[in-house]
Automatic annotation (TrEMBL):
InterPro entries: Thiolase, Thiolase-like, Thiolase-like_sf_Thiolase, Thiolase_acyl_enz_int_AS, Thiolase_C, Thiolase_N
Signal peptide segment: none
Family, as annotated: Belongs to the thiolase-like superfamily. Thiolase family.
Protein name listed in UniProt: 3-ketoacyl-CoA thiolase
Native species: Fibroporia radiculosa
Pfam families for the chain: Thiolase_C, Thiolase_N
Recorded GO CC terms: peroxisome
Length: 410
């Protein structure tokens, strides 16, 4: 559990006034604010089996950037920089630059790439936001992308002298192993993991059936085919079916992680256009949201999945908020073991967390997720009329990230 920063003896009226003051400060609109004027994602595809399995990361990026330029009518020459978060494609800077050029971005616009594993999409957003905030540029594009079909996770290699350090050894172990370590050390039972997994599956099924995700998806055209819906949600998933699944990692820990209570491997991309409020108003760009702050933390690599428990309090403190001030949380579901632990330690109502399901149901294209959570969270805030979004994820090797965003279409 973490403190919400309210002292004992404070009256309900004083507490209410303090909360109002905190939130009012965050919601205040200033010309120099870093705002989001466009936030969309591609449909998701199931790795190796789904609709995007034959399309490399550069093709996904090209399609999403082209769809963005067509939808927004933005003059691409006005983009000052593009930052792409991705994990495993070879030569990522080359393919990202090539994808932007092929999508119609002029050669005058530079491109960079960042890799913070599962936090890469958020890292790209932070890079663009920081550059805009510091007036090094005016308008930028942040992208998160991964093709786990074309570029599955390689086995990290470290030399013996590095591997001799226990923490260094743990930080390159398979993610499934870390899931089992969390389940074993923090007593997260298989039944509890399946319970949280069923929440994710059932919420995503309901959202898919009702067409909710269409609000955040930009249909993309690839090789003459238009793709507009996810193919990753397993409709008809039941609690009984989840309970029957065999362990995915029978040689580790409690062997409680299964294909049904862990995030799926997936393909996809997400994108945010960011600028100052003053420039957005000058250019007549719709303002969807505001970037407030973000934070990255480190934890013991062996228990990588618990990182949101550290990252979320830190980012809330940076923003001057309490957890009660947040309307929607998007916390990545890498594994139900770590997700269950985080939800219960943070003591946040599950109704506020991943209301349309998370990566257990939707899949987790590593570089995409940090950007997708912002796209998904802002869309949900618009539906609810809510104001504040907190995103968070655990990150391979023993790290975590979190971000605070504001919905401006209330």
């Amino acid at each position: 559990m973490f403190s919400v920063g309210v002292r004992r003896g404070v009256t309900p009226l004083a507490r209410s006034m303090a909360t109002h003051a905190r939130v009012s400060t965050i919601l205040e609109k200033k010309p120099e604010d870093v705002v989001i004027t466009f936030a969309k994602r591609t449909p998701l595809g199931r790795a190796k089996k789904g609709q995007l399995k034959d399309f490399p990361a550069d093709e996904l990026m090209r399609a999403l950037i082209a769809a963005t330029l067509d939808k927004t009518k933005l003059d691409p020459a006005k983009i000052d920089d593009i930052c792409v978060g991705t994990c495993h494609p070879p030569s990522p800077a080359y393919i990202s630059r090539a994808a932007a050029l092929a999508a119609g971005v002029p050669a005058s616009v530079p491109v960079s790439t960042v890799n913070r594993l599962c936090g890469s999409g958020l890292q790209a957003i932070r890079a663009i936001a920081t550059a805009v905030e510091s007036r090094q540029m005016t308008l930028g594009m942040a992208i998160g992308v991964e093709s786990m079909s074309q570029n599955p996770r390689p086995t990290p290699e470290i030399v013996d002298a590095v591997d001799a350090n226990p923490q260094a050894h743990d930080c390159v172990q398979p993610m499934g192993w870390t899931s089992e370590m969390v389940a074993q050390v923090y007593n997260i039972s298989r039944a509890k993991q399946d319970e949280y997994a069923f929440i994710s599956h059932s919420r995503a099924e309901k959202a898919t059936a009702s067409g909710i995700f269409s609000e955040e998806i930009a249909p993309i055209e690839i090789r003459g085919t238009v793709i507009s819906t996810d193919d990753t949600v397993r409709m008809g998933t039941t609690a009984e079916g989840l309970a029957k699944l065999k362990p995915s990692f029978p040689n580790w820990g409690e062997s409680s992680t299964t294909a049904g209570n862990a995030s799926g491997l997936g393909d996809g991309a997400a994108l945010c256009i960011m600028t100052t409020r003053a420039n957005a108003e000058k250019e007549g760009l719709e303002i969807l949201g505001k970037y407030v702050t973000s934070s990255f933390v480190g934890v013991e690599p062996r228990y990588m999945g618990i990182a949101p428990v550290v990252a979320i309090p830190q980012v809330l403190a940076q923003a001057g908020l309490s957890k009660e001030d947040v309307d929607v949380f998007e916390i990545n579901e890498a594994f139900a073991s770590q997700f269950a632990y985080c939800v219960e330690q943070l003591d946040v109502p599950i109704a506020k967390i991943n209301p349309n399901g998370g990566s257990i149901a939707l899949t987790h294209p590593l570089g995409m997720t940090g950007a997708r959570q912002v796209v998904t969270g802002l869309a949900e805030l618009r539906r609810r009329g809510g104001a504040i979004l907190c995103t968070s994820m655990c990150i391979g090797s023993g790290m975590g990230g979190a971000g605070i965003f504001v919905n401006e279409l209330r």
